[in-house]
Amino acid sequence: MDTFVFEGLIDFHSHLLPEVDDGCASDEQSVEAATRLKEVGFIGSICTPHVIPDHFPDNTVPKIAEGVAELRQVYAAAQLEYQLWTGGEISIRDYSVDWFRTHPIPTLAGSNCVLFDYWGAKWSESIDEFVDLLLERDLIPIWAHPERCVVARTERQWIQAMQDKGVLLHGNLNSIYGGDGPDVEELALELLKDERYTFVATDTHKPGVGLEQRIAGMQRLAREFGEASVYRLMRDNPRTYFID
Fold this sequence. Notes:
The chain is α/β, with parallel strands linked by helices. The protein has a single domain (about 10-240), classed as Alpha-Beta Barrel (TIM Barrel). It is about 45% helix and about 15% strand. The protein has 10 helices and 9 strands. The protein is globular. The chain starts with 8 loop residues before the first strand and ends with a helix.
């Protein structure tokens, strides 16, 4: 089996900030995960902790910026050359629109792009309202791993409806690997085949098995869709949209 070696990749969805959500639990775990990402071709990650005000009240735009600044110092002390940028992963709730009308919206690396996810089994008007809020503010909505969303798998017309509104899609490498189940894998491969994704990312949470599955997913992406797909989805498009 071919093992592909990459360079210059940017991971725009990660949970490397320690002790802020279900991602890395310590500085040491974050350093270990970033070291492994660097080994397989990444030059940096956008830190996107979960932004859910009633679950993680400290994950605000200012606090995330502080956390990224501190983690940069940790990496420097560990002599790890790995870039970090600020971001956030907004999980849409019924209150999201009202909340973000009066609170700062986290964007990816200071760009005009916003990452969101949704986990409901049924479609919610809150999604459309939130996307409309972003579009009103000239922000670009990015739907994180729709293949993992129950309603996107059972009612696939919502994927097209979101794209018609101007929402971009991002696939998860663990889904491509098959780590989230066969139905998730099936939809991820379908969206890849149809070139519906603008981005693919690791969604790294911790070092170890979960991260290795994501790396295996990247190898599968290269093997079945070509190395050019990896570079388009994980290097070129992230630079175009997020990184100056």
